[in-house]
Amino acid sequence: MKLLGRDIPARELIGRIEERLRSRGLPTSEAAEVPEEGVEPRVDPLSFYLHSLEEHADPTQPLPLHTHRGGVGQLVVVAKWAFRKTCQVLINETLARQRVFNGHVRDSYAQLSAEVLRLRREVEELRAAQAPATPPPEPPIVPVRPRRPRAK
Amino acid sequence: MAVHQLIPSFVPGDATGQAALHLQLLLRRMGHFGELYAGEVGAGLESLAHPVSALRPAPEDLVLYHHGIASPLSGLLMHLPCRRGLVFHNISPAHFYTGTPLAEALISGRAQLAAMAPFVEVALGVSDFNCAELRAAGYRNVHTVPLFIEPERFAEANADPALLQRLRGPSPTVLSVSRVAPHKRFEDLLALHAELVRLRPEARLLLVGGYEPGSRYFKSLQRTAKALPGVHFLGRLSHTELVAAYRSAHVFVSMSEHEGFGVPLIEAMAAEVPVLAFGAAAVTETLGGAGIAFDRKHFSFLAELVVEVTGNQDLRQRLLQGQARRLAHFSAENSQRALAEALRETASPRPRPRRPARKPKRPRVAIVVQRYGEVTGGAERHAQQLAEHLAPHWDLTLLTTCAKNHLSWENAFPPGPDRVDGLPVLRFPVTRTRNIRPFNALSNTVFNRANERLREEHWVAEQGPLSPALLAHLETARDAYDAFVFFTYLYAPTVWGLPMVADRTLLVPTAHDEPPIRFGTYADVFERPRVLMCNTPEEISLIERFYPKHARARVVGVGVDRPKATPQRFREKYGVHRPYLLYVGRLEPGKGIPELLSHHRALRQRYADAPDLVLAGEAHMDLSGEGVRYVGRIDEQDKHDALAGALAVVVPSRFESLSLLTLEAFAQSTPVLVNGHSDVLVGQVERSGAGRAYKDLESFITGLREVGQERAPMGNKGLAYAKKYSWTKVVAAYQEELDRILEEKRQ
Q: Which position among A110, B163, B419, B656 has the lowest Cβ density within 10 Å, counted as fewest Cβ atoms?
């Protein structure tokens, strides 16, 4: 255990408290998992949106069933599941055109984002050719796969 | 350049909205005009923030977008045809919400953050930690501009007394403030409390923050809490209740595992509560060595630490002193310095006003007043008289609105250049009319209690008049004027416009003791101008009472004209044949007219020979009554004729900074009968010896009798007093103050 603070005699304070814990028969240091904390990594927008469009392009597929509510919330989840099971044919029929449209959106985004990546590379190459001294660092264009919630 | 702000949601209690208001305050102090635009504007807050669809920035304007969780506004920002900036409030890591729909929105928010990077000129993080995330997301021009709080709003005097009483209890009381969300780790607070009650069975845990009663997470917390004594979920609190909660606590504890800044940490410092916090993300940075940060959640150890901090007075004092030092870092001044540095590289050069070929011989001064021209109102009349007397000496421009009616602020005059009595007037449209009934209801909810800035700013916005074009003019044309004279502390153009040009501003506050003068939002108005040109010593004492750090103040007042008057002319013109009491001015409840009518009615019932009551001016209420004569608006000559012929002039308002009517009555050798609840009026009567003050019906009747009996000697005293108010002296005082500004400018 570390205590940080300019206005406290940290070592003396820890010693005093640990002494008290010992006298109460309690362990003075518990094995605790220290959470990893740091700056969150960059989520590359081009690949993230492409991935999201791929995953969500088909509107006939359900989102994972989830509720943050207890009690009645569970009933709602069951009702949603039953609706999906019994009405999937109807859902497919209703959203058929949307599915086609979403597919086009996904594909055109994929094409455009690939174009953007190609153009960025070209710009970088041109810049590098024009100013060989010290070009300013560009943000990484290598896509980082975002951590995604696992679908149930 | 105008600096507008774009926020996803502007609703009460939202930290981003609070940050945007604070930023707007700093930007005004830096001379920038700017409005707030929000994706969602809370009900009733439309006067403070506009819908996003109304955002039409000019190419040279800067729009600062406040980013957090995924929002469609990020896409909008990238396409705005202006300069763009970003304020990053951080995003909770998605791993805390894996398997929930929120995770998608959190990751999307980070993707949007990275997507905006190439389109943004300047990025502001509220902590170094946030700035590090901005850099990792691809931003280059990144600056830390810390949030700030106003410590005085967390003083014990601002605590809700009922809740303070209810929460008062035995030590130790542990407090935590944040919305109930998994990454805030409320379960760890409960685990700490379980250890603490083993040591101190009377210990209490106060949990403040919004929660969803039906959520599975909250229900599990509730189940755990039920097994423990002394746990209180207080939910979302109003500002005064929040202060009561802070002020009831012995220790503030944060177990949160992710904070981009941690506003409650510094609020606790302001409320003089020792802080213990898990050192996650930006927490240790915010604490800056103050309070105690810990790296492990060893609950039995932490329970002993809570006991130590509450029981060891020496340690407690050292912690509080250290926290007070740390709190000073989160001042508006420090944030402004950081913001100025951040915007320095972004700022476009201010457009230089077209200067005349030859240097102007006379100083160029703008008088800013909420209404001007053919309008009724003491402050407006004051401004008009001053303008007329200063015009021979200065190159004056009157900056005002198109409004005529001070209740509705409806545009009555055409916008643009105008001339009133030969003086150039520049009128700007009012964008929002006022409905006085809901406004009065709003006043009842904010008067005579402590509020957070949002509620006070909201009241100012509803008070109006809202004229963004006037504020924009102050920014763009400020260099066209050598100085500004602002009139009346109360109205929005002064509250928001004065800070933009404070270094060359003379304020005529016309302050009187009314509830809004206690609002902290008026601090800039009284503390930042070069000088306060007050009307009476009582006014300075009043300002001193609420704003001890006010700008230099001097009593200047007004001059009084003494035109020749013929009472008979007024009597014949309006058919007034009996002795009469006179009131001239706005006829509305706020001026004490209902009380005056009631006293006059009682007077008539008791005495058959009671004088009539003559009322002149713009009426906003029913004036019927036996012996009451309403003569409508009258011109200047009629007014002086009426003043000269009155038995006495009655001044029934309790809110006066200087009664021009009183001085004009004195100038016509007529005594006055004034509201004794107004220190200013009582001071004027006492100094002159030319009238009486009343506080109730009996003193009204007694005063009237005395004034009637001694009318001539009192009138003479009044005349002698009025002669001291000369325009020559007033003009000299203004000249002197302007010379100081010009001298400084030259140096």
A: B419
